[in-house]
């Protein structure tokens, strides 16, 4: 890790770009992230007070992701060190006073404090097995907000985009309990997918986070069904190409109506019948 030298870390990252977290002008303003292609320029921005985020060098990723997938069993046997499809390692180079506000991830996470100190606040969310992360701390476009809400509401129908009022400092009787943990150099913290967390850098430093994407029962079942279908010697139907076949126009349509319009009309007729 280059002796935790900022420029060496940012120039040796496996990321195509380094993310710079621009300091907000107001305490309650969402975080703004800017992508910087040049590691030297990112190091200069970090030097003047902005925090940085990027992936660790490739060698670090391969060794840590492989070892932790194998040790935890989360990869269900998929822990080849050359395959990073189920995990990555991020580096956080934060300045004192930087706050990453409340959010949760869809990965299982192990974070190691290498230098400096951080205070973590943790709270349980109603989404225990998230399909996507939930990032109200970022300035997110409407389509991202919508997709994150849809994914969260599969588990918690009443889920709202902002964190619960109690986590935002508002008075509430039914908010989740908050636990606080201080990480010093050498400390390691595991926090599961779907766990609300808010992190404050109380001293400038570097931390390393291993994010693991666990295989789900849905992954296992659908993969097994696919394998069973494809291995059948006489399963030509399962191995054949799939394409959408447009249905014939329903009776009563004017002659010469294009097939696509006929299909749409047929679908509309079916919807009317269902209603």
What share of residues is helical? 25-40%
Number of discrete helical segments: 7
- Give the low-pLDDT segments: 259-275
Order of helices and strands: HEEHEHEEEEHEEEEHHH
How far apart are the first and last residues' alpha carbons, in Å?
62 Å
Strand content: 25-35%
Give the oligomer, counting copies of the same chain as homo and different chains as hetero.
Answer: single chain
Number of strands: 11
Strand arrangement, major sheet = 2-1-3-4-11-6-9
Task: Indicate the structural class.
Answer: alpha+beta
Using only CA atoms, what is the Rg?
Answer: 24 Å
Biggest sheet features: 7 strands, antiparallel
Mean of all residue-level pLDDT scores: 82
State the shape: globular
What layout of secondary structure does this protein have?
Blueprint: H1 6-11, E1 18-22, E2 32-36, H2 39-47, E3 51-55, H3 58-72, E4 87-94, E5 99-103, E6 108-113, E7 117-124, H4 142-152, E8 178-183, E9 188-191, E10 195-203, E11 205-212, H5 217-230, H6 236-239, H7 259-274
């Amino acid at each position: 890790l280059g002796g935790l030298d900022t420029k060496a870390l940012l120039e040796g990252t496996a990321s195509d770009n380094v993310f710079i977290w621009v300091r907000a002008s107001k305490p309650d303003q969402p975080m703004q992230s800017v992508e910087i292609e040049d590691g030297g320029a990112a190091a200069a921005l970090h030097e003047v007070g902005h925090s940085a985020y990027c992936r660790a060098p490739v060698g670090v990723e391969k060794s840590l992701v492989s070892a932790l997938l194998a040790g935890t069993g989360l990869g269900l046997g998929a822990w080849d060190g050359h395959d990073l499809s189920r995990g990555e390692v991020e580096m956080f180079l934060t300045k004192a006073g930087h706050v990453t506000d409340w959010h949760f991830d869809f990965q299982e996470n192990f974070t190691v404090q290498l230098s400096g100190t951080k205070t973590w606040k943790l709270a349980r969310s109603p989404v225990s097995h998230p399909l996507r992360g939930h990032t109200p701390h970022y300035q997110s476009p409407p389509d991202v907000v919508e997709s994150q809400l849809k994914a969260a509401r599969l588990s918690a129908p009443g889920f709202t985009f902002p964190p619960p009022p109690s986590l935002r400092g508002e008075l509430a009787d039914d908010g989740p309990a908050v636990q606080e943990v201080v990480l010093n150099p050498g400390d390691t913290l595991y926090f599961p997918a779907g766990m609300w967390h808010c992190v404050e850098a109380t001293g400038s430093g570097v931390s390393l986070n291993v994010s693991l994407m666990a295989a789900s029962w849905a992954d296992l079942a659908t993969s097994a069904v696919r394998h069973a279908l494809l291995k059948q010697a006489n399963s030509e139907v399962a191995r054949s190409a799939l394409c959408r076949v447009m249905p014939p126009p329903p009776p009563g349509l004017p002659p010469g109506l294009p097939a696509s319009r006929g299909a749409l009309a047929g679908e509309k007729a079916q919807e009317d019948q269902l209603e």
